[in-house]
């Protein structure tokens, strides 16, 4: 059994894997280092990570979840929370709730301060999940699969736009 305790100071922050690193114009607005906590302490139904966002950047595009709820706890710095069309200042010690729902609950945290913004992110781990990105008109479908033969976690992910769907019977 894994030790169910870890100190936040012992969580290494790593760059995103290359497949998820922003490129082109997106790299001007998005950046983050993340430390994944859940697998280190044996969490099963909640996902925890420490996210560090540089000045002027955001970790993710504005998005809303249809299944999962997220909570953020600001540990360092300050910024702005966007929820739908609303904007809220956030700072050290703030707790942020992001329940599942439609585009009116799309959320994004931006570092508007003058130092790195760090927050603890907690999420339910409901799978499959549908995520919408209202700024770009995209959606993502994510589903956990059984581990591979070698025990490696497997995940299905598809990002698309509405209207690009195939006919159900195509190719059958």
Could you please describe the fold and organization of this structure?
There is one protein chain. With 172 residues, the chain is mainly beta. The protein has a domain at 28-126: Jelly Rolls, CATH 2.60.120. It contains 2 helices and 13 strands; from the N terminus they run βαβαβββββββββββ. The chain has helices at residues 26-29, 38-41; strands at residues 14-15, 33-36, 46-53, 64-65, 70-76, 78-83, 86-91, 95-98, 107-110, 117-124, 129-133, 138-145, 154-161. Strands 1-2-3-10-5-8 form a 6-stranded antiparallel sheet. A 4-stranded antiparallel sheet has the order 4-11-12-13, with no helix packed on it. β11 and β12 (138-145) form a beta hairpin.
What can be said about this structure in brief?
This protein is mainly beta and 172 residues long. Helices cover 5% and strands 42% of the residues.
